[in-house]
Amino acid sequence: MRQSHQLSLVGLLLFSLIPSQLCEICEVSEKNDINPLLNTMINSKYTRGTSAANVLLSLKLVGIQNQILRQKMVKEIKHIVKTGVSDLSSGELALIILALGACRSPEETLIYDYHLIDELENKFQAEIKNMETHSDNPLTNYYQLSLDVLALCLFDGNYSTAEVVKRFNPENKNYYFGSQFSVDTGAMAVLALTCVKRSLTSGQVKADGGDLTKISNYTKSLVEKILCKKKRNGLIGNTFSTGEAMQALFVSSDYYNETEWNCRETLNAVLMEISRGAFNIPIAAAQVLPALLGKTYLDVNKDSCVSGSDNFNISIPEPITVTPPESQPHISVNYSVRINETYSANVTVPHGSVFLAVMEKAQKINHTIFCFTMEESSWGPYITSVQGLWASSNDRTYWELLSGGKPLSQGAGSYVVHNGENLEVRWSTY
Ligand code: CBY
User: Fold this and answer.
1) Residue 380's beta-bridge partner residues?
2) At 144, is the pLDDT very low, low, confident or very high (cuts 50, 70, 90)?
3) Binding residue ranges for cyanocob(III)alamin
4) From ligand 1's centre to the CA of 300, what distance in Å?
5) Which is the closest atom of ligand 1 to the Cα of 91?
6) Separation of 324 CA from ligand 1 center, angstroms?
7) Closest Cα to atom 17, ligand 1: which residue?
8) What are the binding positions for cyanocob(III)alamin in this chain (predicted)?
9) Is the pLDDT assigned to residue 320 strictly greater than 70?
């Protein structure tokens, strides 16, 4: 055979191998790698509300049949559905719908018994109304608006495609915190827009051709912005946004070139973060897990996830009882509250303390300057006010946490402080 023919044959062979290999390679092959995630979800004493919904959704998508764990989550969600739907934010309700409805399981009926889709339609409308009256600021944020559209789209709720087109333009300020594009938000929007696009193309939902083109263009631009946030080690955004960014890239492969994203590299970076113990709260573990097994939130209404394999080794380890040493070594940090002026104090806390412990200690030292309030969120405590000054979604203001002048990628209840560190809570806009 002539050499040029041989070459083209080899090329053809390689070309036909690449797509299938890419699909196969980019999934964890060693199931033990994800055990730390499963253990975090299993051993957590308190998996409340939104966290429970995230965990249930994740377990169902990857086909983990552990009935004890599932029942625990369903019980928690059932309690909320029966007693407190009106207190939920739109995105919290959307997640609950996704979790209950995922993979055609018996608890799906709760969605219809408690009219959760109607409730979500109303909450989504309230978000839009708030945007109309408060300079385009929703009640919550675009991550939640995307969850709303995703749940309405997957569970045949009513939403207006024109409204989606009007709101989800990638240049909208709500995709940004300060000058930074939020990968989590962009990724969730790509999932929502992909669902809407699929409904339009399948003829399930009627729309004019212009809407379809716009949604495609939005998706392409969001995917570009997500890929721009790819770090040298493969993470996209940061540790906690990478799983959702992977989901977005799985469903939008028509919009980028194979050479633009090395999925295996990203997967390895996540595995590295798992081994470092980075996903040590249930919601963090739950959000990253589906992508590691090649699943996305768009698989929620596929029948296939019902017969998931249960070959995961989820042995429940004996709880480790740590007896604290008699006298824990203490460390000292500099803590500041910055509004226009900066108020500082030197604070001593036990070694291994989190940011919140520093804030509490400072509050004891000087209540007027360092008093603060917080509220429990699925990611742990969220600081709502300092010195009586309250964060507000309508004004896009919040208390930003920083160390050495750099924003932290963990909340006050998770970030472990170090000796000599310069910690700050700063009155900021996003
Ligand atoms: N979820 C939500 O509504 C939250 C959406 C989210 C994009 C979220 C990150 C992503 C996710 N996967 O859940 C988000 N954060 C938002 C929208 C916000 C804003 C909340 C205000 C609003 N109107 O909704 C805001 C104010 C910009 C914000 N996050 C602030 C902060 C800081 C909190 C400080 C405080 N006052 O307590 C902080 C700590 C950043 C900082 N340096 O100040 C912060 N967020 C962080 C670190 C995070 C990550 C948490 C990671 C972790 N291990 O704790 C995050 C995953 C998340 C939660 N925020 Co916000 C983003 C990341 O790092 N990848 C839906 C609902 C149903 O659950």
Assistant:
1) 377
2) very high
3) 140-144, 184, 238, 287, 382-383, 399-401, 408, 430
4) 24
5) 67
6) 32
7) 141
8) 140-144, 184, 238, 287, 382-383, 399-401, 408, 430
9) no
φ, ψ of residue 429 in degrees (nearest 5)? -115, 155
| Alpha-carbon distances, residue 308 vs 190, 288, 311, 407 (angstroms) | 26, 18, 9, 40
Model pLDDT for residues 197-249, shown as the tens digit of each residue? 999 998 877 777 899 999 999 999 999 999 999 999 999 999 999 999 999 99
Task: Record the tokens describing residue 282, joined without a space.
Answer: 């249930």
The CATH number of 34-293 is: 1.50.10.20
CATH number of 330-429: 2.170.130.30
What DSSP designation does 85 have?
A: G
What pLDDT does 358 receive? 98
Locate the domains of the chain by residue range: 34-293, 330-429
User: Edge-to-edge strand order for the sheet containing 389-390?
Assistant: 372-377, 380-386, 389-390
Give the tens place of pLDDT for each residue, 243-288: 999 999 999 999 999 999 999 999 999 999 999 999 999 999 999 9
Residue 386: closest CA among 402, 404, 374, 403: 374
Residue 315 has pLDDT above 80, yes or no: no
Give the pLDDT confidence score for residue 305 in this predicted structure.
66
Q: How far is the CA of 218 from the centre of ligand 1 (A)?
A: 23
Question: Which is the closest atom of ligand 1 to the Cα of 142?
Answer: 17
Binding residues: 140-144, 184, 238, 287, 382-383, 399-401, 408, 430
